[in-house]
Amino acid sequence: MEQRLANTWRMTINEKKFIETSLLSDIRVDGRRPFDYRRLTINFGREDGSSEVQLGQTHVMGVVTSQLVQPYRDRPNEGTLSIYTELSPMADPSFEAGRPGESAVELGRIIDRGLRESWAVDTESLCVVAGKVVWSIRIDIHILDNGGNLVDAANIAALAALSTFRRPECTLGGEDGQEVIIHPPEVREPVPLIIHHLPVAVTFGFIGKENTVVIDPTHFEEAVMGGSMTATLNTNEDVCAIQKAGGVGVLPSVIMQCLRIASVKAGDITSKIKNAVESFNTERSLRKIKRHTSSDVVDVSETARKVDIELSTNHMDRLNLLSEDRRVAQRNDMKVDCQIIQGISKRKSDAKSFSGGPSSWDPYSKGVDSDALRASFASRAVIAPMKKLQDTKVDQPINKELKQPITENNSYVPPIEPIEVTNAKLQTNGEKTLIDAIKPKHRRRKASSQK
After folding, report:
1. Is the torsion defined by CA of 75, 76, 78, 80 positive or negative?
2. pLDDT at 202
3. How far is Cα 115 from Cα 199, in angstroms, rounded to an integer?
4. The pLDDT of residue 399
5. Is pTM, for the whole model, over 0.85?
6. What is the overall mean pLDDT for the chain?
7. Which of 84, 342, 406, 408 has minimal CB crowding within 10 Å?
8. How far apart are CA 302 and CA 316, in angstroms?
9. Average pLDDT, stretch 178-200?
10. Which residues does 349 contact at the CB level (< 8 Å), separation at least 6?
11. Per-residue model confidence (pLDDT) at position 64
């Protein structure tokens, strides 16, 4: 690795010796044990198929895209899977921009060997028309910050991006039935990739003459180590690929020990990837539900306030119209009343001016006094209710204890006797009958008792 060798010259001899001697005491520069992993963080973008992995100081981003291409002649029923890496000078000064170097090519091959040769992705499901059109999946890995162990971080980023990627749904149509129609996500739900297992890469470094084994080496330890080995395994403890770099020889017993450690670490990393993907899927499902944002709420409140203002203005207009109508009606009533009063006064004046009296329109009423005629009509109107009162029951008890009415000036007003009492007095003052001569039984009993 030319870029890494360029950085080794920057380290002093004392720094190298410090790293080697500290490992003899099972202590690393960053405080970890030889078989401890750094903190792993997995994040996803808003679009499907984009992931961001941070392993300690190492920062890697993975993006998955797809397109329709022609298949290979030897495999007409299978799609293609390719990996491209980008090492920018922003991540490390030793990286050169432009054409990828040997380190970038080696990084891509290690990840590609672990994914393709282990058949982690079902490429046959990517076929649309056999021998004509298949889906080509491309994984772009961008190194944002080089903190050591780029292989493990890039492998995790590729697996996380593949787990969240969705390719568009396509169908066959046209006149001959061979035309491929790609449906947008709004019409048909995108289809996820079929992934059989997750091959996780675990890198080991051999440092010093004793070949001290460390896991997940940093960029300082990579400058000191004499060799490295990357083992790609899944949760079933299947060895998908092994990559040995450097000139230092490794014993078979050490390799077997590294594989046992790698199987445990692969299980832990796989569980973290699945948990992160599951949480992302739940967030994506919630994102599809349409919700009102804060701006929508503000707009709704403003519209409601406008509606209230319009309603209040309409109500005030109605009130004003009603008040105006009432005023007009009052004016009309006043005019009508004035006309009625004028009509009545006119009638009275006409009646006063009419001097002929009843004799003018009735030939048989000559010599009749009009005042006497009016009094006779009034007497008839008063006598009618008196007869009705006489017809009522006289047997009802008479309440003789009448309250004395008092006026506002506390002046005494003599009580008015009711009509029933007067009628009773009139009956008693009249002629006595045989019934009145007979005494009641209770009176006779009292008289006998007194004797």
Report:
1. positive
2. 95
3. 7
4. 45
5. no
6. 75
7. 408
8. 21
9. 89
10. none
11. 95
Q: What span, in angstroms and rounded, lies between the C-alpha atoms of 22 and 326?
A: 102
State the Cα–Cα distance between residues 385 and 148, nearest whole angstrom: 122
Q: Which residues contact 254 (CB under 8 A, 6 or more apart)?
A: 211, 213
Q: For the chain, give the number of residues.
A: 451
pLDDT tier for residue 342 given thresholds of 50, 70 and 90: low
Quick one: angle between helices 150-164 and 252-288, nearest 10?
40
pLDDT for residue 129 is more than 70: yes
CA 444 from chain centre, in angstroms, equals 99
Q: Which amino acid is it at 57?
A: Q
Mind giving me the DSSP string for 183-217? PPTTTS--EE--B----EEEEEEEETTTTEEEES-
Burial of 48 (0-12, 13-18, 19+ CB in 10 A): middle
Query: What is the residue type of 259?
Result: L
DSSP structural state of residue 75: B
* Helix H or strand E encompassing 313: helix 294-353
User: Can you say how many angstroms the Cα of residue 6 is from the centroid of all Cα atoms in its chain?
Assistant: 56
Give the Cα separation of 409 and 406 in Å (integer). 8
Q: Are 172 and 181 in contact (CB under 8 A)?
A: yes
Bridge partners of 140?
Answer: 63, 84
Q: Which of 42, 268, 272, 280 is nearest to 157 (CA)?
A: 42
Mean pLDDT of 264-282: 93
Could you give phi then psi for residue 446, rounded to 5 degrees? -65, -40
Nearest to 4 by CA among 246, 255, 343, 191: 246
Whether the Cβ atoms of residue 269 and residue 156 lie closer than 8 Å to each other: yes
Q: In this structure, what are the phi and psi dihedrals at residue 106, rounded to the nearest 5 degrees?
A: -65, -40
Q: Hey, what amino acid is at 196?
A: H
The Cα–Cα gap between 134 and 285 comes to 28
Q: Is residue 63 within 8 Å of 139, Cβ to Cβ?
A: yes
For residue 216, CA distances in Å to 95, 104, 105, 202, 326 come to 21, 19, 20, 7, 93
The amino acid that residue 224 corresponds to is: V
Tokens of 90: 């922003």
